[in-house]
Request: fold
Amino acid sequence: MALQKQGVDFEAADFRKKVFSEVWDELVLKQRIRHIATCLSEVLPTEFSEALPVLESVSKSFSGLPHLVFPDFIELYGLNKPLESLPALTRLTQGSSSEFAVRPFIECNQADTLKLMLQWSGHSNEHIRRLASEGCRPRLPWGRALVALKKEPEPLRPILDALRFDNSLYVRKSVANNLNDISKDHPDWVLGWCCQWHGQSVETDWIIKHGLRTLLKQGDAKALTLIGYKNPQGISVENWTVASEVAIGQKIDFQLSLNLEKFMGQKVRLEYAISFVRKQKTPYRKVFKISEFMAITAVKNINKHHDFKMISTRTYYAGKHKMELLVNGVVMAESEFTVSENRL
Reply:
């Protein structure tokens, strides 16, 4: 065992028994990570400064999801020692990610932690540069929301500015995701940032388009114009057909033809939206991308389907649904259809 190789004196069998206790099967991923980190605290040195080098040495034997235990240990036991903990998180992030563990440090001392993260944005290692952006995302999935930065994103500007030309796609995705997070609370702030830097480089333009994805799906006129999608006047939708019924677990087909004769040479963003029935709630509308293309032919034929198979992130209910066709963010056609219970 990696702990024993580092000279940690403990009973391995007892440690395994404590980790895989009777509650283990009931815990979700992040709860399991926290549970293991807590178990580690019982066998590592009590003093954090003494436990940290052992923890880092042990971490080298792990990667991916299991490695998340080590940043979590620092989050749990090193919050009051940022001068030791934060540099350790930059080393550990290279084995998986410290994006969750750094967030409490931001909450405790936002100004100083963001100042340090700005320094990380200039690091030669892409994992550390990514942490500079990913760790301060206001709405990081699976992570605690950074309430102060959701309310006021301006402190994030120096970090986003510093990473806007980054040559690593891994880093650029994080910057774009950070912008997308901010756009959900401050669309004008994000649009202002994007307008300032649009056209500066291929890398920055990629970040901008990906960072505006929520606003693009919402049909935001400013976002669509910035990316080059003009009002679809002149485009006509022909032969729009949606199947009248689909059973849960099956696929619904739809077809259409776009007449692009008066829109030649222009960018086209084609999407469809479904307003899903929800139990005791108003319909939930979600937009799905079909394609993006340059109009180079007079007619574009589309044959698609939407799958109503059961997934963990969405529950389907029987009833009347609506499908809309969006061209450059504008609803051009719509139809109702019925979702029924699977009779199989």
